[in-house]
């Protein structure tokens, strides 16, 4: 996958302040406020910063956690997983493999009964939904 590299100024010009805070500064949107939390629309979820395909609606499920949840990325090469020890806990951060934007976190073994037993908890502001035609 080709890496997308931009300066901080270029990202600030492209993204609105909330998108920049989450995607480039690893922020988190407030739970139950994102536009895709409860969306059932069939389609492809792309990185809001670079347009790379990240998730498909077939893997989205209701976790009732306050953010869109997926049990797998559309391609394992689409995301990068990074150990995150911030906020006094050990988590796994999910980033876009193409542009290194923060997407959210992935959790394993929570008992949701998904095929992978993973919950990719992703900020809506990190995504753009491309509805199927």
TrEMBL record:
Which top EC class is given?
oxidoreductase
Cellular component per GO, a single term = cytoplasm
The chemistry this enzyme catalyses reads: L-methionyl-[protein] + [thioredoxin]-disulfide + H2O = L-methionyl-(R)-S-oxide-[protein] + [thioredoxin]-dithiol
Give GO terms: molecular function aspect only. Answer: metal ion binding; peptide-methionine (R)-S-oxide reductase activity
Cofactor(s) for this protein?
Answer: Zn(2+)
Q: What is its EC number?
A: 1.8.4.12
Q: Which InterPro entries match?
A: Met_Sox_Rdtase_MsrB (IPR028427), Met_Sox_Rdtase_MsrB_dom (IPR002579), Mss4-like_sf (IPR011057)
UniProt key word Oxidoreductase: yes
Keywords assigned by UniProt?
Metal-binding, Oxidoreductase, Zinc
One GO BP on record is:
protein repair
Domain MsrB, which positions? 8-132
**PANTHER family in the cross-refs:** METHIONINE SULFOXIDE REDUCTASE, METHIONINE-R-SULFOXIDE REDUCTASE B1
Q: Which NCBIfam families match?
A: peptide-methionine (R)-S-oxide reductase MsrB (TIGR00357)
The protein's name in its UniProt record: peptide-methionine (R)-S-oxide reductase
Native organism = Actinomadura litoris
Q: Which gene encodes it?
A: msrB
């Amino acid at each position: 996958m080709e890496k997308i590299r931009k300066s901080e100024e270029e990202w600030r010009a492209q993204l609105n302040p909330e998108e920049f805070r989450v995607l480039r500064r690893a922020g988190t949107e407030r739970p139950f406020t994102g536009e895709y939390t409860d969306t059932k629309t069939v389609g492809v979820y792309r990185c809001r910063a670079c347009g790379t395909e990240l998730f498909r609606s077939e893997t989205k499920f209701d976790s009732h956690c306050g953010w869109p949840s997926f049990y797998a990325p559309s391609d394992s090469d689409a995301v990068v997983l990074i150990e995150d020890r911030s906020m006094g806990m050990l988590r796994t951060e999910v980033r876009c493999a193409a542009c290194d934007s923060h997407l959210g976190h992935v959790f394993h073994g929570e008992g949701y009964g998904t095929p992978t037993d993973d919950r990719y908890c992703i900020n809506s502001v990190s995504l753009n939904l491309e509805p199927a035609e």
